[in-house]
Amino acid sequence: MLLSLVLNKKKFCFFITLICNFLLFAKNVPEWYEHREVIYPDGFYITAVGEGDSKLEAEISALSGISMYFNIQTEVTNELERTMKEVDGSSYSFNKKTEMDERAKVSSQSEFFGVQFDECFFVDGKFTTIAYIERDSVFDVYYQRIKSATSKMESLLLTAEDFNNPLSGLEAAEEAVPLADYVSELMKMARIVKKCDESFFMEENALVQRAYNSLEICRQNLTFHLIIKNDYEDMIYTTLSSLMESAGYSVSKYDGICSIPVNVSIEKTESSSAVFLYCGLNVKISDGTGRDFFSYSRTFPKKGGKTERQAYNRAFQVMQEELKNSFIQEFSERLIR
User: Fold this and answer.
1) Predicted confidence (pLDDT) per residue in 252-278, tens digit
2) Which of 201, 217, 72 is nearest to 149 (CA)?
3) What is the pTM of this model?
4) Tally of CA atoms within 13 A in the half-sphere of 331 that contains its CB
C-alpha cells in the first residue's frame, strides 16, 4: 500500500513536471515557429529559419538561408555592417520584431532588400529566429530601383548616340554598360521575388540590350589618329595601335576623329665604347572638339648599348613594356570616371 502511494506520487510529480515544461516551452515558443505556413504563406513571403549561439548568429544564419533562395552568397560574418531598429520604435530586445535598415550585402552585383526578422527565442541551447521578405513590397522596391537606373541609363545613351562628339559618346556608353548589368541583376531578383510575365520588363530589357550595342557601335565608329613623334622603327606605333585595337578601338596612322599625339623625348649621350639614351613618353588624347581628354606621361632610366641601334632597341623595348602594363588600364579608368 505504501509502495503504491509512493509510486503514484512519483508518477504524479513526473506528469506535473511534463506539463510545466510543456507550458513553459509553449509560452516561450513564438507563434511563427508552430504555424510558419499560416503566418508566412509561401505565396506572400520568402522565409528562412536560422539558429546560433547568439541572437546575431541566428539572424546571420537565417539571412544565409534567404540568400540561398536567390542563389547568392551572403557575407556571413559577425562584422556584417547593419543597423537594427525596432518596428514599434521601442528599445532593442531579443523578443521584439526587428528589421534591417541597410540592405543585405552580397558578393555579386545583385542585392536583396526588405529582410526582416520575427521574434527570436532560446530553446535547446540555441537561439532561433526567422528571416522573411514580403514579396509584394520588396518587388516594389526592386521596381523603383529598376526605373531609377533605367532613367539614368537612357540619359547616358542619348549622349552615347550623339555622334557629334564621339569621345564623349564613348564615355557615356562605357558608363551605361555597368548600369545595364545592374538593371539585369535587379530584374532577375525581382522575378525571383514575384512571378511576372516575361513581357513585364520588355522595355527595360530592350534598353539593356541597347546599352551593350551602343558601346560596341561607339567603339567601332571612333577612329583614333595616332601621331608619333620620334618613333623608332614604328615600335611605339605598333604597340599602341595593337593595344587600342585589342580593346575594341579603331586606329589609323593617317586620319581619325580623335587624335593621339605621342611625343617620345630622347636625350642621347655617347662615350668611346657605348651609346646611352634617356627617354620619356608623353601622350595626350583630345576629343573631336579639341578638348584635352586624357594624358599619359612616363620617364625612363638610362639605357645603353655598344651601338646606337642596340641602345635604341633596348630603350624602346622598355617603353613598349610600360605601355602594355598601364596604358589601356589608365585610359579605360578615365572613360568610366
Assistant:
1) 888 777 788 999 999 999 988 899 999
2) 201
3) 0.59
4) 21
